Amino acid sequence: MHSWTFRLNALFTFTVTVLAFLSALNALSVAFYKPVPVATIENVKLNRLPGSGPKRPNAEARVMFDMSADLRSLFTWNTKLVFLYVTAEYSTELNRLNQVVIWDYVIENVKDAQLTVGKSQTLLLPRHHNEYPLVDQGRGIRSSADNVTLYLNWCTMPVVGFISRQREGKTEFKFPETWEKLAAASK
C-alpha cells in the first residue's frame, strides 16, 4: 500500500486545496457588493505651526477640520479593517500634484465605523487637527493659484482578496499668501 508520508502528503494537499477554494468563494461573495459610505469634511481652519516663518525653507501649517463619516456599509464578513486617512492635494510651480496625508485612523470593527471628529467627537480620536504637518517643498503652497483640496480616503483590507481604495468628502480652501494673514485667520 501507501506509506504514512504519502498519506500525510495527500491529506495536507487536500486540506490546502479545500481552504484555497473556500477562500476564493469568500472573496467572490463580496466582489460585486457596492458599499454606500457617507463622509463629509467641513469647517476647515488654518493655523501656523510653531517655528514656521519667513526664514524656514519649507512652508508648514496645521489644518483644523470637522469630519463625520458613516462607514458601516464597508464592513462585511470579509472585512478585516478599514484604514481611514485625510489627504491634502494641491499644485505648485515645482510639482504639478502634491498629495500629503495629514490625518489617519484604523477602524477594526463595525461599531467604530460611524465617527465624528471635531466639535462633537463620538470616539476618542486624535485631535481634529492634522497629526502630520502639512509641509510643502519650498513656499509654493502659499502662492499657488489653485485651492488646497481635502479628501477623506479609505482602504478596505479584506480577510481574503484585494485591497480596495475609495475617496469621499471633498472640501477646498486657499492658503493666504503671507503668514500674517494666516496668523490672523486662526484667531
TrEMBL record:
InterPro entries: SPC3. The lineage of its organism: Eukaryota, Cryptophyceae, Pyrenomonadales, Geminigeraceae, Guillardia. Keywords: Endoplasmic reticulum, Membrane, Signal, Signal-anchor, Transmembrane, Transmembrane helix. GO terms for cellular component: signal peptidase complex. PANTHER family: MICROSOMAL SIGNAL PEPTIDASE 23 KD SUBUNIT SPC22/23, SIGNAL PEPTIDASE COMPLEX SUBUNIT 3. It is found in: Endoplasmic reticulum membrane. It holds the Pfam family SPC22. This is Signal peptidase complex subunit 3. It is a single-pass type II membrane protein. GO terms for biological process: protein targeting to ER; signal peptide processing. Residues 1-20 form the signal peptide. Belongs to the SPCS3 family.
